[in-house]
Amino acid sequence: MAEKRDYYEVLGVAKDATADQIKSAYRKLAMKYHPDRNPDNPQAKEKFTEVSEAYEVLSNPEKRQRYDQFGHQGVDFGPGGFDFGRDFSHFQDVDLNDILNSFFGGAGGGFSSFFGGGGRQRRQAADPNAPKRGDDLTYRLDIEFDEAIFGSERTIDLTIPGQCAECHGTGAADGSKRVTCKTCGGSGVVIGGSGWFQVRQTCPNCHGEGSVIDKPCRKCHGAGQVATPAHISLKIPAGVDNGSRLRLAGKGAGGLRGGENGDLYVLIGVKESDIFERDGLDLMVDIPVSPILAALGGVVEVPTPEGAAQLKIPAGTPNGKVFRLRGKGVPNIRGGFAGDLDARIMFEVPSNLDRRQRAVLEEFQKLASPGTFPQAQTFVNKTKVFFAHKEKLAKRANR
Ligand SMILES: [Zn+2]
Ligand SMILES: [Zn+2]
Which ligand approaches the C-alpha of residue 209 most closely? Predict the structure, then answer.
């Protein structure tokens, strides 16, 4: 994957840009690259997504801070990191008018007509008191190869935006209620600008909701969520693979105003083994074998997830020969057939010989005939032909 560009660079703003500068830069770029304006232009669509992603992060003070501190890793998920349900696909569904309306609080008319929008009706604002489901969270967990094969149990400690116990996710203090916003009189919109140039803006006090909590909860300051430590026991089933996702229902971010909690997804990263190579459900293992044993035939021991298997190899087994052990691969997490295990014979030349061993091998070497090593014999014959050609050609050249 290509290196991600710096979000500030994407929007063409300085690191210390104000929220307004970021908003204005995004607006310009979003209109320039919007898919509606660039039909059949995949590059524009890519740009649009990139710009939207940068804006999504930099327009959110919490995410921006995390990004400033940790870079892309702070807002992407990495080991032990979080993914706060980042899904930019919804930006594609937003049309130009909605982009404009979101900036000007355009309750009909507004600026949209300047851009040929034709006074599209603003979408009904969501009921600010409606229950809202908590975000899904993703946590990345790296496990050992053996844990993935055999299954294991893990506990993870993390901090999630949990439901505030004080207000049960309403954000309101006891006995408090929502009251009409004094700044905008309930419309959610304020008129700004000067002279002939007037701009409708989302009310900064109520963020367009038209109402505010008269007494916010003291513990969560009205957010309905507080940073909550979570201690989670996790059963890792045998057979998980790199990239497997385990879903823990209701363990994600706390729901707001009676909404249910989001889910927690544990994204599994599996470390490499120093014995096996894994490909899906199949395993491959190199078995060091004595060439003498391979010549005589015999039994070699092959490690499998079920234990050591005895593999009979016939006399004359060549180096590199692969024996497939069916069903001895990785257990199937879905309960189907397990994968296969390929055991590859890798000759190990005898070394550290003592006197007797050496004597026996010397004896053997004396007894060896050309037929004992047929490949070597064929090779010798081929090189004879090669050198004969050399002589013939040299003679011809000297003539
Ligand atoms: Zn609270
Ligand atoms: Zn207001």
Answer: 2
CB distance 238 to 142 below 8 Å: no
Q: Which residue has the tokens 């070394």?
A: 351
Digit-coded pLDDT (tens) for 216-237: 899 988 888 999 999 999 999 9
CA 223 to ligand 2 centroid distance, Å: 17
CA of 23 to the centre of ligand 1 (A): 30
Q: How far is the CA of 226 from the centre of ligand 1 (A)?
A: 7
pTM: 0.58
Residues with CB under 5 A from ligand 1 (ion): 164, 166-167, 217, 219-220
133-161+222-270: CATH, from 3.90.800.10, 1.10.150.390, 2.60.260.20, 3.40.50.1240: 2.60.260.20
Express each pLDDT in 48-85 by its tens digit. Answer: 888 988 998 898 887 888 788 777 766 664 433 344 44
What is the CA(162)–ligand 1 centre distance, in A? 10
Write down how long the chain is. Answer: 399
Among 20-24, 76-80, 187-191, 201-205, which is the least confidently predicted range? 76-80
Mind giving me the DSSP string for 265-289?
A: EEEEEEPPPSSEEEETTEEEEEEEE
CATH hierarchy code of domain 1-125: 1.10.287.110
pLDDT of residue 273: 95
- How many Å lie between the centroid of ligand 1 and the Cα of residue 227? 11
